[in-house]
Amino acid sequence: MTSKAPHRHPIRLGPGGEFDLIRSFLDPAAASSDLVLVGPGDDCAVIDAAPTALSTDLSVEDVHFRKAWLGPEQIGWRAAASALSDLAAVAAEPVAVLVSLAIREEDVSSGWGTRLMSGVREAAASVGAVLVGGDVSRTPGPAVVDVVAVGRARKPVLRDGARVGDEVWVSGALGAPGAALALLEAGRPLPEALRAPFARPLPRTREALWLSERADLHAMIDLSDGVAGDAAHIAAASGLAIELDVSEIPIAAGVEAAAPDREAQLALALSAGEDYELCVVAGAGVLAPLAAEFRQRFGVALTRVGRARAGEGVWSRDPAGATRRLERGGFSHFAAAQP
Amino acid sequence: MTSKAPHRHPIRLGPGGEFDLIRSFLDPAAASSDLVLVGPGDDCAVIDAAPTALSTDLSVEDVHFRKAWLGPEQIGWRAAASALSDLAAVAAEPVAVLVSLAIREEDVSSGWGTRLMSGVREAAASVGAVLVGGDVSRTPGPAVVDVVAVGRARKPVLRDGARVGDEVWVSGALGAPGAALALLEAGRPLPEALRAPFARPLPRTREALWLSERADLHAMIDLSDGVAGDAAHIAAASGLAIELDVSEIPIAAGVEAAAPDREAQLALALSAGEDYELCVVAGAGVLAPLAAEFRQRFGVALTRVGRARAGEGVWSRDPAGATRRLERGGFSHFAAAQP
User: Fold this and answer.
1) CB B297: neighbour CB atoms within 10 A?
2) Which residues are bridge partners to B150 per DSSP?
3) Which is nearest to A54 in space by CA: B51, B13, B2, B48?
4) Contact B87/A44, CB-based, under 8 Å?
């Protein structure tokens, strides 16, 4: 299925300022992939990577990012990393991205848009994906970046396979992007430890594929809204409750700069979001034997943080055994239900 | 490849106003397809339709549409039809769409966004595609809709295969959406003949597949920027010139309401765009035998409008044989090249 030669035709669009801009968005080194049969410059890209996982991630200026806080390359990287993280969440290999960009005239002429796109391409390249298409429009309003991530999901791990008695694990440590955001919003400086997790989050692509090849993963999700909110999706999809041991939640280095006490740190780790770590559910005893090699190979921890039980929703459990239902604390774009 | 049963899990997202909104976007009848292995509600959609054609189409409020001129269902239909037209342009069968929507709070609470999404779903359903995912965000600015169209391209028809001596054909008749826009911008009423082409353009999916099954198509593009600009892409990609017989360009009914003389009508037909008709290039004599059946089957004409010759660019040719180079007249988002 993947042995066809890629269709490598040079980008020959017709004349026009819009097409000059599109040309500036594309990789001068013309990155390609054997799975990409038709790259940028035609009506469609064509890829050969079935079963094909698809996810879109929308970033809006002054909602998801502020130009005062991040350079355009970082904004592009984050937008792409967020979409690529969705591929990791189903254990798909990244293949391609498409990017739609609505942008003000002045952000074109300053080169901001072209720099943003170089950040997108760099994030994609970091996990083996290439830019194969997209769209561009002027806008009179905030910049909007929509990244479409396309991968191959030979054996997708979904949200609905968790079973009562399973263990819940997370990769890495949580709360750093939330702490960075809290500091920036308060006009305070970022400690070094918070800068990279905020400006350059790493999709856990290799980690997810490595785990899915070695263990029967029952469910997985990436942590974009905070583990409390994201675990609630697994709980809802699988028809059970998830209980998180609050004393086991791994707190990222640097979080203390924004949250001095453990309670405040936990709130960031549970609810602030944008961690892009994995939350993985597997049978009891399945992941523990892999944790040491995982840490050695990827340089981040794999930590058991809870369990699935009968019931519904997400619950915290303190070391004394007291449980409390966690309200969804992740960022919600729309608090009220629409008609 | 297509015999697997679709993975039909109910949409069980966690709680939250944002997820209520997403639920309202989805089809209550849960349209599905054998090619959709995982539909909405997980980190990714998963489809099994290789080779997979992908295209995105971005619509920005007050750039691509105005709320005063179209209802939300029509805006959603148009946004989806434009992306689906890109699938037709490579002779791909539509399978799925994903939609990213940036929307103001008040457009959520009024139900405008939910109505827009019903228009997207309706356009997708009209050519056999289902909504499988997307993203939603609030925005402080204009509404932005990005539609990702996903299809199966068993034998994609690209832009780069035209050869010197080939004929250039178009489906349908041109200029109606451009005429409608001109009237609306002048505050004048729309005649009935212009309403549907403007508010409810039809992607030429079946037409493109039918032609590609019956003839060796060398190149194809859909007319989104006007045939002068779009033919320039085929000319550039194929490394030749295209000559259009201006007396053969089919003008749509109703265009005379905005453009009283033939010259002004031609300008709309050549350059106004958003026709979403097909421009097809094939060897001499290949398409003529199919034109009568095409018209009978699809209710629209298939008209020879020009030829490919050595050279570059797009040229008009009048009945006396005089030729003139056409400047790209389609809408350009960015007139000037960026740095």
Assistant:
1) 12
2) B54, B96
3) B48
4) yes
3-state secondary structure of B192: helix
Give CA–CA dist B168/B219, Å, rounded. Answer: 9
Q: Return the SS3 of B139.
A: coil
List CB contacts (< 8 A) between B153 and chain A: 44, 46
Asked which of A17-31, B96-110, B163-177, B303-317 is least confident by mean pLDDT, the reply is: A17-31
User: HSE-up of A252 (CA within 13 Å, CB side)?
Assistant: 34
Contact yes or no for A48 and B44 at CB 8 A:
no
Of the candidates B171, B147, B159, the residue with the CA atom closest to the CA atom of residue B81: B147
Q: Which residues of A touch B110 (CB under 8 A)?
A: 339
Task: Enter the ipTM.
Answer: 0.92
Chain B partners of A15 at a C-beta cutoff of 8 Å? 232, 236, 328
Q: Is the pLDDT of residue A248 over 90?
A: yes
Mean pLDDT of chain B, nearest integer? 91
Cis-peptide into A51, omega within 30 deg: yes
- Adjacent-strand bridge partners of A167: A282, A307
Helices H / strands E in chain B, number of each: 10, 13
Is the predicted pLDDT of residue B244 greater than 50, yes or no? Answer: yes
Residues of A in contact with B92 (CB under 8 A): 44, 46
Burial A190-214 (b: 16+ CB within 10 A, else e): bbebbeebbbbbbbbbebbbbbbee
Average pLDDT over residues B285-290: 98
The residue in chain A having the minimum alpha-carbon distance to the alpha carbon of residue B107 is A338
Query: Under an 8 A CB cutoff, do B114 and A239 touch?
Result: no
Q: Which of A42, A160, A205 to mutate to test the interface with B (most CBs of B within 10 A)?
A: A42
Region A246-254: mean pLDDT is: 96
Q: Comparing C-alpha atoms, which of B82, B231, B233 is closest to residue B168?
A: B231
Q: What's the helix, strand, coil split of chain B in %, to 5?
A: 35, 25, 40
Beta bridge partners, B105, equal none
Q: How far apart are CA A279 and CA A273, in angstroms?
A: 12
Cβ contacts of A167 within 8 Å, gap of 6 or more:
A281, A282, A283, A284, A285, A286, A287, A304, A306, A307, A308
Average the pLDDT over B136-143 and give the result. Answer: 96
**Cβ distance of B222 and A43 shorter than 8 Å:** yes
Q: pLDDT (tens digit, 9 = 90+) per residue, A226-246? A: 999 999 999 999 999 999 999
What CA–CA distance (Å, rounded) separates B158 from B152? 14
E strands in B113-216: 130-138, 144-152, 167-171
Tally of CA atoms within 13 A in the half-sphere of A79 that contains its CB: 34
Lowest mean pLDDT among A72-76, A149-153, B10-14, B262-266: B10-14
pLDDT for the residue numbered B28: 61
Per DSSP, the three-state class of B50 is: coil
Lowest mean pLDDT among A26-35, A212-221, B171-180, B235-244: A26-35
pTM of the predicted model, to two decimals?
A: 0.93
